[in-house]
Amino acid sequence: MKIVIIEDDPDAVENYRLLKKHHSVSIYTDAEGVITDLNEVVKKDIIILDIMMELADSMDPEEAKETGIALYQRIRAKNKKVPILVISARSRSELLQAFPKDTKLNIVEKPIDLETLRRSIAI
């Protein structure tokens, strides 16, 4: 399976590296890289997205306001079918309020262990 992980927390990234034993894994630690590679990112089998990630300060001030929610929307605009697993320390109900009502989200709350992640990838 080809997996893209978008996560800016170094400890979480280290846990995700364990997936490389069984899968082809691309890890992005900043949103800027995701946007640059967006056409490739959306071709993967599944995307794991830290929804609270923000763009780097070095980007245009208007773009710097963009969060993981906007990344989710950019990914969805390019590929409506690729599964996106949303990872967040925020509660499920909080996250659902940030999206349009008809959005179907696959959410896993942090902290997340590797076994939970493996089960979630099988969506």
Summarize, please.
By secondary structure, the chain is α/β, with parallel strands linked by helices. Helix content is 34%, strand content 20%.
Tell me the layout of helices and strands.
Blueprint: E1 2-6, H1 10-16, E2 24-28, H2 31-36, H3 38-41, E3 46-50, H4 68-78, E4 84-88, H5 92-97, E5 106-109, H6 114-121
Parallel strand pairs: 1-2, 1-3, 3-4, 4-5
Can you characterise this structure?
- The chain has 123 residues and is an alpha/beta fold.
- Helices cover 34% and strands 20% of the residues.
- The chain has 6 helices and 5 strands.
- The chain has a 5-stranded parallel beta sheet.
- Helix 4 links the parallel strand 3 and strand 4.
- The chain is globular, with a radius of gyration of 14 Å.
- The mean pLDDT is 83.
Q: Which properties best describe this structure?
A:
alpha/beta, 34% helix, 20% strand, globular
Structural class: alpha/beta
Task: Please report the total strand number as a whole number.
Answer: 5
Spatial shape: globular
Helix content: 25-40%
Largest sheet: 5 strands, parallel
Element order: H for helix, E for strand: EHEHHEHEHEH
Which spans have pLDDT < 50 for at least 5 consecutive residues? none
Distance between the termini: 12 Å
What is the overall number of helices? 6
Strand order of the largest sheet: 2-1-3-4-5
Note the beta-strand portion: 15-25%
* Quaternary class: single chain
What's the rounded overall pLDDT mean? 83
The radius of gyration is 14 Å
